[in-house]
Write a structure and sequence with these properties.
The structure is a homodimer of 406-residue chains. Chain A has 406 residues and is α/β, with parallel strands linked by helices. Chain A folds into 2 domains: 172 residues, Carbamate kinase, CATH 3.40.1160; 163 residues, VC0802-like (2-Layer Sandwich), CATH 3.30.2130.10. Helix content of chain A is 36%, strand content 26%. In chain A, β11 and β12 form a beta hairpin. Chain A is globular and about 80 Å long. The model of chain A has no long low-confidence stretch (mean pLDDT 92). Chains A and B meet through α1, α2 and α3 of A and α1, α2 and α3 of B.
């Protein structure tokens, strides 16, 4: 018998019929003798609908009130699931963020969890109740309703799993696990049985889009095994676990691609203290997230500096940098939107040399030019021309032995 | 400068456009230097939609969870109104039932208010904020979300007005006040400037349908003046006040009709102790509300007993009474669905004689037969044939001098 937290996303609770399917799955887990805490998102599309309604009454809706509005989405699904479970004669009860005491900071719209009391969850579990908790929402120390930002229900689930010391946190979603690459562009991609928290952190930020990145950080901190699986099948998905917990050891666990980046280069930047700050401070002020930064040394006290930004922010960033260039006396600013960032990720890299050279050789074999490189302990990323992105993923997938075994 | 509670019903907040109209009215009251607390219902139709959704997942939805679901309706309108006010640069904040601490009993779906702390309302008012409170909802001592039953937002408004010691509680609705009779059937009906709590209590229960009856009881207890007025015009409506507060004194303030009743008669009931209990206990067990009861003495230790029930319950009641009649030895049971109850109401009756005879004479003049009569301190009700209902209202309206003064 285990204590299991099950989180269902918006597509899994998109209408009353799907909610009834969720109830069946929850009931089955309960009938096997497990204690179950369910975390729900709003019905798919509802949050966007509420935001659209808010925009009808306000151009830029007040953050506090937007959270009050958005919190109704999860309240609806939780009430419906608890109702359905009760009509099936299971003892079930819904709890909202403030009732569970998911305490957050005051940052409406993107609040961080400070603490979870969870006393009411524990009391109900002791009475063998199924507890249905609204994801995505909490309350600040003044009792205001807060929300955790996009994908926040994942973080709710993992944080509540940590608070009640669950054996596992199951994340039910519309994919059946974490793949070694995007199966849409790499047909030989295969589902991983396990992946480490650190690999997942790198996968998520690079575009795997399955789990909210913050939830993975929580899971790592409290060592909560996270099981990513499909709500539409019974198959096992992918376990996200501590890297020392006997997981499958691959040198590289995955190849990811990100075509949502753009590159900006400042040519012949005076190589003086304080110049980098002058370049990046306006970006931070404008809320533009800079990802990779590369600086090449040139002769004669000058340097070239290149960095990437989200493609949506490209025009704004280019305009800002033209002002910066005039200010600091850089020769030229130019950019490129047709790039892709390809990364290989794996905790195995720590103990293996030659991963970088294998990567570069595989790309060179296909005549794919690398324009930027950045590395971390468990990741190597290269920027290439966008048109080669899919080919690059496939050749790296093969080069690192990830292809489906026949 | 006054402290004003303004309550807007479902039709007044039916869509974002109407919510923006409500905001304008609230802002105007605030700009006149008043402190304002706004109480909102859910958008018209939303509560019924939520109940329909609940029925998809459960034949008889759990009461606790139904309240969690229904409470989202007011949460939505409150957030939208506060947002709109903020976008107009007014300091506004929404508060849900649990945040205001509208403490209720545990009776989900029809909870009674036990106490309202309202500390947060007072704090916000001191800072000259507009406070937007979700009507219809509260929480029980265990922190569960509760709702107050149909029309509960009126009760929320009056109870909150009492808690914050408001100068007036304005109820904005789709009618422009309380009329001396239903204008649809009595063209000469006129709007009353004032009406007493007791008259209103009798009007409401007899079908005026403007205010939830419970809210009037609250207003009377705490002596809160209630201003019933239209959300679609600037005109003054009707003040519901204490009868000693210098209001207009009419002998009769209104004529009401109720065509939703049916009559059941038990003929030749043995006149013995305990018989009435045998007749009415099964009705209570079946949840049938009995309104008027009349017992006529007959000769020979027998009596005829007649009572009225809601027309929807007529068939069920008749079946029950046929069993009762067999049990107690009554001769016959028969009923009539084509009846109407016509009432005249007025605190002035206390000091005036002859009201009953004026009523009976006016009906007799039109050859309208009276089949049942019941009286209270400020009300006389007659049951007549349904087909005469509208005529009866008009002749009584004229007989008591209520017709519009030319």
């Amino acid at each position: 018998m285990s204590l299991i937290v099950q989180k269902f996303g918006g597509t899994s609770v998109a209408d009353p019929e799907r909610i009834m399917n969720v109830a069946k799955r929850v009931a089955k887990t309960y009938d096997q003798g497990n204690d179950v805490v369910v975390i729900l998102s709003a019905m798919a599309g509802v949050t966007d609908g509420l935001i659209a309604m808010a925009r009808k009454v306000s151009e830029s809706p007040d953050n506090r009130e937007l959270d009050v509005l958005l919190a109704t989405g999860e309240q609806t699904t939780c009430a419906l699931l608890a109702m359905n479970l009760k009509s099936m004669n299971y003892p079930a009860q819904s709890l909202m963020g403030h009732q569970v005491e998911v305490m957050t900071d005051h940052c409406f719209g993107n609040a961080r969890i400070l603490d979870i009391k969870a006393d009411r969850i524990r009391e109900l579990l002791e009475k063998r109740h199924i507890v249905v908790v609204a994801g995505f929402q909490g309350c600040d120390p003044d009792g205001n309703i807060t929300t955790l930002g996009r994908g926040g229900s994942d973080t709710s689930a993992v944080a509540i799993a940590a608070a009640v010391k669950a054996d596992v946190c199951e994340i039910y979603t519309d994919v059946d696990g974490i793949y070694t690459a995007d199966p849409n562009i790499c047909p030989k991609a295969r589902k991983l049985d396990t992946i480490s928290y650190d690999e997942m952190l790198n996968m998520a930020s690079l575009g795997a889009k399955v789990l909210q990145i913050r939830s993975v950080g929580f899971a790592k901190k409290y060592k909560i095994p996270v099981h990513v699986r499909s709500s539409f099948s019974e198959e096992e998905g992918t376990m996200v676990v501590d890297e020392n917990s006997g997981m499958e050891r691959l040198v590289v666990s995955g190849v990811t691609h990100d075509t949502n980046q753009a590159r900006i280069t400042l040519k012949k930047v005076p190589d003086q203290p304080g110049v980098a700050a002058k370049i990046f401070s306006p970006m931070a002020s404008a809320g533009i997230v800079v990802d990779m930064i590369i600086q090449n040394t040139r002769a004669e006290g000058q340097t070239d500096l290149t960095f990437t930004v989200p493609r949506n922010d490209f025009k704004k960033a280019l305009k800002l940098q033209k002002e910066v260039a005039a200010d600091i006396g850089a020769e030229e600013v130019f950019g490129d939107q047709n790039i892709a960032k390809i990364s290989v990720i794996g905790v195995g890299m720590k103990d293996h040399s030659g991963v970088a050279s294998t990567m570069f050789a595989a790309l060179a074999n296909e005549n794919i030019n690398i324009t930027m490189i950045s590395t971390s302990e468990i990741r190597i990323s290269c920027v290439i021309e966008e048109k080669y992105a899919e080919l690059a993923v496939r050749v790296l997938h093969t080069a690192f032995g990830l292809d489906t075994r026949e």
